[in-house]
Each structure stands twice: as C-alpha cells, then as structure tokens.
Design brief:
The chain has 132 residues and is mainly alpha-helical. It has helices spanning 2-19, 48-61, 70-83, 88-94, 100-107, 109-125. It is 59% helix and 0% strand.
Length: 132
C-alpha cells in the first residue's frame, strides 16, 4: 500500500509541475488532475466516484478482499497509532479530525483494553493481581 501511495505522490508531483499556476494545492493525496480542468484549475478534490474507481483498481492490484474499503485502512491506521502510544493530539491532527476528543471518542475503545492490560501488569508486579 505504501509503495502505491508513493507512486501516486510522484505522479501528482509531475502533474503539479506540468500544470504550473493552473494547479491549486489543497494538500490532497488524490487531487484532481489536469485532464479536465474544473473552473480553470486542477489540484482540488476529486469527485467521490473517481476516488472509488481508483481505489477499486488499487485494491485489485494489492489482492485485497472486495469488501475492504479505503476507510477501513484509515480506521486501522488511527487504531494502530493509538495502540502504539502515539499522542492522540497528533493522531487527530494527522487524520484531520476536528478535535482529539472526537478521535478518542471514536477510537478510544481499543485504548481501554490497553489500559486494562497496563493496570493488570502493574498490579501483578506489586503482588496485587487478585484485586484486578
């Protein structure tokens, strides 16, 4: 997946260079290309149908199951980052949630299990495992 995203980045950088001032950078992974300029510019968000079509092609190339949605990958990334102990403020900003509170409310359920394991481990080291 990461290699596919790197190739996408290179393609998009080449398109940005080719179009020059026609490209309006919105800091998107899958920006609209210059094939058909929309309002005289490229670089903005693509229509959802185009992103979905590209995702289906990528999913097939990677031999992922048909039911694997692009959003599942995003969800996995957030969950894995939080479980790895990454700062929730940074994780939230990275996925452009409106607040860390939203991120934790949405994804914090997996952190509860980690907190329980941590508490049990600490209690066990102190000889208090019967209380947990």
């Amino acid at each position: 997946m990461l290699n596919a995203l790197k190739r996408q980045r290179k393609r998009q950088d080449a398109e940005r260079e080719r179009l020059g001032s026609t490209w309006t950078d919105h800091d998107l992974v899958f920006a609209r290309d210059g094939f058909k300029l929309y309002r005289g510019e490229a670089g903005g968000p693509q229509g959802p149908e185009k992103v979905s079509a590209r995702w289906r092609i990528l999913r097939t190339r990677l031999k992922l199951p048909e039911e694997f949605r692009i959003h599942d990958w995003r969800h996995s990334k957030v969950t894995n980052d939080l479980e790895a102990g990454e700062n929730p403020v940074e994780v939230s900003a990275n996925v452009r949630h409106h607040s860390p509170g939203y991120t934790m409310a949405r994804y914090g359920h997996s952190r509860k299990n980690g907190a329980r394991r941590l508490a049990a481990s600490g209690a066990n080291r102190l000889g208090l495992s019967s209380l947990v």
